[in-house]
């Protein structure tokens, strides 16, 4: 019955890191100690105030569907967050609560992409992006990026790569896998460039808050015609709760509302009530302490990798990733990663999960492990590359 | 910027009942008492054991992403449920835990439908079905059904309506909005007919368990080449938790796994741990008590509606809906519903939310309110139709 699988599935790939993850688990079952530096998920537990809010809500037992667009009070709280964080005033009607940023991508692309249309994205980037676009039989036009543009698209690249059939451009700042940011002026110019071309601008801001220096700018500061994808997963530490949000241009409100009704019914209710506690000042203080811990880890890992001979062309200022050039040690980073896992029990993500451009010379290290654990990993890594 | 909205959105509609729901809320804010018989959601709270399991899991605070396909223990528990309930042996690898049946539909259709292909469905049926199909630029071939086939597709209708470009057929038994079942023999014949035509069979079994008579048969009893969509929302009473499942043919396991990784990352973790308690015998006993309460409501509502002059051509044996012919009172059931809400404060769902076939002569009553509340509604309804 192979012929039943839809054609789009041929283009949708799973992640190479899954193979490593599975092997890592096997090794752990055999009693091996594995340091996980492949995981794109904070190692912290759910923040205490959020957990309490979740428990308080559950104690009532009434876990019914919410409105498709989300709890009105959560939509308002998100809108208010844009006012305090970015000085942007935002009608809560434009805010949709979704099952993670993943749900936000689903809505944004379903509402805006026709089959055959293309979206410009940086290579390397978050691998699900391209697969979301393929879900709707649209495609990605990958733009190879390097350290000269901080591994990001910019206005000039967008104009140069724009072709008939292009529908928009996606920027994630800070980026997964590179942790690099687009500065406010460049983001503004990119938004303007896409607008001048008549396209949609998709801004993945899921790593906002996890920034080690000046805070990141939101695309909403420069236009109300953008799609902004965000989530309670990363900075807010709520991965498994599956709650995020999407901000849409006014003209998309009705379409996205219909879609949300049909494809989600609603986002998990208890997760939405828990997320409401995220904006409490006491919780924000806790999240900022965690951010400072990530900053310390970033410094530690960055210095250590450089010392070992990895090249990091662009110091990352956000997210929890370092995208390191390992060309001094190998010309196939996937083989490198597999061998590192087998011999030393350190799990990392191969570049080819994020694109094709010089992917074989890159490894993504996630600093979602403590400095102690990373120190152990780095000792092993040193032994591995000096073997 | 209207031109940005994707073409598929033109065909995706929101629900007429939303207008009624909004008006009902307005009236409630004004102090009016509204009886809600429009809501497709059990009025019971989350079952106590499930709630406890959820709370127990949350107390640890570690709400991380699970594997994309779901918790292995929950997949196994679902597989085991097929053994005990239906005598079907099922490899847990074929079970995917999803954000509700909604998530299951998303995976099943994304993995199997190409743009332009069509799926046969009964008219009337659950309105999201057609919109899910449209999401992937495929279409629905609606087959008008009536009391002669218990408002269901059968093998003969499937063969008669099959056209080039048809990719499969969808049956929901018990059905929303009619509450009617397909008997085991007819389901087997329908599965065989679709298989002979080389198509995919999609079986929406979300109302299994809520059956007032002989239990419903699962399509998995007749073939391992079917897609079975199910959920913890209805019988298990977990709507707002957003957890359900999809069973796929072996040949789809890899494709669906890739999709789940990309579009969901995972189903809410706390919801999956809570759902694990669903299969506990003590919980099943509680759910069966609730089912008996629904059966009593069904009898009460059925008898009352007939007494008032509604026609119910086919006594419903499942779900929590009665699809009543109101042609004795009106020829536009949407207007009837709006007027009933305004004058008497009773909310019901108009037939046209479920299709086009004689939709203007039908109303869906949900017995998701207590018998006392329904008695009040019926007094008002009687006054309304005798006015
Ligand atoms: C860049 C980026 N965008 C979106 C997501 C989706 O996250 P979630 O659906 O948990 O919000 C991720 C998760 O790793 C990510 O790295
Ligand atoms: C027939 C049918 N299928 C699927 C669903 C989706 O439910 P959920 O996503 O909550 O599991 C519903 C909800 O009303 C339904 O009536």
TrEMBL record, chains A, B:
Keyword presence, Lipoprotein: no
Short name of any one Pfam family annotated for the protein: Aminotran_1_2
Root EC class: transferase
EC number: 2.6.1.-
Signal peptide start-end: none
UniProtKB keywords: Aminotransferase, Pyridoxal phosphate, Transferase
Keyword Phosphoprotein (UniProt): no
PROSITE patterns registered for this protein in UniProt: AA_TRANSFER_CLASS_1
A GO molecular-function annotation: transaminase activity
Similarity field: Belongs to the class-I pyridoxal-phosphate-dependent aminotransferase family.
Protein's recorded name: Aminotransferase
Organism for this UniProt entry: Methylomonas aurea
Upper classification of the organism: Bacteria, Pseudomonadati, Pseudomonadota, Gammaproteobacteria, Methylococcales
